[in-house]
Amino acid sequence: MEQASDIVVASRAALAQLAALAVQYSFSIVGALLLLFVGWIASGMLSRWAFRGLSRIHGIDVTLAHFFSNVIRYAVLVLVFVMVLGQFGVQTASILAALGAIGLAIGLALQGTLQNIAAGIMLLVLRPFRVGEYIDTGNINGIVQDIGLFATELKTYDGLYRLAPNSLLWNVPVTNYSRLATRMHDFKVGIAYEDDIDKALAIMLDIVRKDDRVLDTPEPSAFVMDLGDNSVVLALRYWANSSVWWMTSRDITKAVKEAFDSQGITIPYPQVTYHAPPGDSGPPALLQMSDEPDSART
């Protein structure tokens, strides 16, 4: 009987303690639930407002707007979680210190990935290239298909898919062949020293002036570039729209070759001229290579 009475007394004491704890923490639980509810709604609203505001800024990419809006949302949620723990008497200072240590460890572990993210943000903000433009960094070239936070997708001229980490595109000089509306073609060709230079220059200028794709301003020009060992080097400079530059330059090169052939202008091969002194019969004969043994040669 005494044991039963002790059990009853202990049970009543436990229930009384639980009731006291329930009353003590009821306000904390209600406050925590309210904080979670309000924080969830506030984080979503702030994220949407941030996305709309960033989208209105000229030069901010949609990917970048999504990234910053998500960062704001999760930052608010982390702050709300810390505040909820504070409702139950948890020391938030130690939690913040732990979160900082965890963030530092993650940053060190993902150093390369974070470097790509930082480079991606800079590429999306400064826009050295856009989707659809042809770029060349020396090691990476192609038409930009997509610019992400981690990597950039490109399509090479021969139809291959290439994925380049953003850090490789940000830390090197980038040549953008599509950014500017017009582009110059510097075409060089050599003619024989015996040919008429003025005639050859007139032929080259006549070809580009008849091509509608060649711009009148700046005006095309043709001139003597250099006096080479085997030829007189002529240069032809003209401007065309970047969208048609490639085909225009190829067509002009072909047209110049065909016009020189029809007008008797020679494009010489590399050669050596031998001047024989008086009484010399000519240059020494070239040795002929043979598979025969030395004893069989005469």
TrEMBL record:
Principal location class: membrane
Designated name of the protein: Small-conductance mechanosensitive channel
Annotated compartments: Cell inner membrane; Cell membrane
Record's function text: Mechanosensitive channel that participates in the regulation of osmotic pressure changes within the cell, opening in response to stretch forces in the membrane lipid bilayer, without the need for other proteins. Contributes to normal resistance to hypoosmotic shock. Forms an ion channel of 1.0 nanosiemens conductance with a slight preference for anions.
Pfam family, one: MS_channel_2nd
Similarity field: Belongs to the MscS (TC 1.A.23) family.
Limits of the Mechanosensitive ion channel MscS domain: 113-179
